[in-house]
Amino acid sequence: MLPSPADKLLLSLADNGLVMNHRLCEWCTKAPSLELEMGLANIGLDHLGQARLWLESVAPNLNTSEDELAYFRDENNYYNLLLVEQQNGDFAFTIAKLFLYDYFHLHLLEKLSTVADKTIAAVAEKSLLEVRYHVKFSTHWMNVMVGGTNESVARMRDAIEFLWQFCGEFFTFTDYEQTMYNKFNLPVAQLKERWLADILPPLAALELSLDTTLPFYQPSGKNNNHSEQLGFLLAEMQVLARKHPGVTW
């Protein structure tokens, strides 16, 4: 069964959570401190919980289950943003990725929590309780690193410069997104301005020349065009379910 525009929107929200969770949980046993390891893992689990809620909502429409959607789709059927599938890199890179994504995620969920669709509004509202903490976490560590040593500033500068190329995808809406946002009468044109207003002040000390028009020249992950990194990520995430389909214990 081909997904409708509504199904694709829910899948994109779910896939962002699934992929972000996997990347964050890769920090287990590798984080700079035990406290940070637990923090990153817990944020990852928040994303996983949100992904499950979105998958539970869309699975009946596609006559399947949340597990089938998570573990038995290939990368060309995933709808996540390119930014979330990027490798963790060092701690600065991961914090930069979280920081850029968290504010976008926050403002999008705030909009979705107001729509007439009760399921979408309820999941968005529940997720907001967690995402507000994610924003505090990533903003705190962004400020620590930007206000830290020459080394931490240099690493954060390199991370932002690399990740900036993917941020335009936040606001380059696909046909299915535009269809649903129009249906919901959702003023998503404001998202970019609010996002920039939040993320630029903490980045000012990096003295970067960032193009705030956010041109996006990459093929869109939201339209199933991904970097090679997603294939490797899914191979690891899906290996047990694919090797032993239907197993229970």
Task: Please outline the helices and strands.
Elements: H1 5-25, H2 34-58, H3 66-71, H4 82-85, H5 91-112, H6 118-146, H7 150-171, H8 175-184, H9 191-203, H10 228-243
Helix pairs in contact: 1-2, 1-8, 2-6, 5-6, 5-7, 5-9
Features:
globular, 249 residues, single chain, 10 helices, mainly alpha
> Strand portion, in percent?
under 5%
| Number of helices, counting only DSSP H or I runs of 4 residues or more | 10
Which term fits the overall shape? globular
Question: What would you report as the Rg, rounded to the nearest angstrom?
Answer: 18 Å
Protein architecture, described:
With 249 residues, the chain is an all-alpha fold. Helix content is 67%, strand content 0%. The protein contains 10 helices and no strands. Helix 1 (5-25) runs antiparallel to helix 2 (34-58) and helix 1 (5-25) crosses helix 8 (175-184). The longest helix is centred in the middle third of the chain and has 29 residues, at 118-146. It is globular and about 55 Å long. It starts with a helix and ends in a 6-residue tail after the last helix.
